[in-house]
Design a protein that fits this description.
Largest sheet: 5 strands, parallel
Strand order of the largest sheet: 1-2-3-7-6
Structural class: alpha/beta
Helix content: 40-55%
Number of helices: 10
Low-confidence stretches: none
Order of helices and strands: HHEHHHEHEEEHHEHEH
Strand content: 5-15%
Distance between the termini: 10 Å
Length: about 280
Amino acid sequence: MNENLKALSYALRKNVLDMVYRAKTGHIGGDFSVMEILVSLYLKEMNISPENQDDPDRDYFVMSKGHSVEAYYSVLAAKGFLDIDDVIRNFSTFGSKYIGHPNNKLPGIEMNSGSLGHGLPVCVGIAKACQMDGRPSRVYTVMGDGELAEGSVWEGVMAASQYRLDNLCAVVDRNRLQISGSTEEVMHHDDLAARFAAFGWNVLSVAGNEIDALLDAFEAARETKGCPTVVIANTTKGCGVSFMENSAGWHHKVPDAKQYQTAVKELSERELRSLSAHNKEA
């Protein structure tokens, strides 16, 4: 069990909450849905750290749904790339390097992102280059499900299959909500697993806010040969705070003082429960 990472996920959500509340801006709903995915990748799965960030054999990550940058900053800080106090204090302030989308002038960030539909195609190029050079690197990207309406995503899907990029793993944050409502109402996905499978991908569908399920999926992706893997991570928008969960209104919204206090309380309680469960098992 990885309940300690689950507890960390709740603790890092509080950092996100502080960023958004202080700056009065941010995409908190998607931040909370994607958190366990980022924690699993950076704290367990990927071969990347401040010590090897310039090693060509490192693993590569692109945050394609770059509007969830607050979660990304929080996890990068937990990994040692950033100073979380500095991030919270300066996020989205005038002249700050901690802007509202990933900025590759910061350590640990491979590319600027947030213009949706670009992450997967870029990762196809990185994965192909690593394949040609015979490097052990694995390449990961996280996309939003609303982002899949972009045609460039499916060009990347086709190319990844064509080149048999088994070093590539895409993750879809499948929270089923985007800024204007339900993904199924805005641009429905039918059977998303069948769509990727039709393009020749290995498809894994998991509970996207469960650490163990994600780690099992990433292990299965590593063991898959001859084709790329997509992990459809079925998540909850706003996961961790009851009044934010499954609400499109929290795609981009700032809590007021009372909501902030309630959210801190709920996240702290969930963090403590996860720590308690981990200690009992240990």
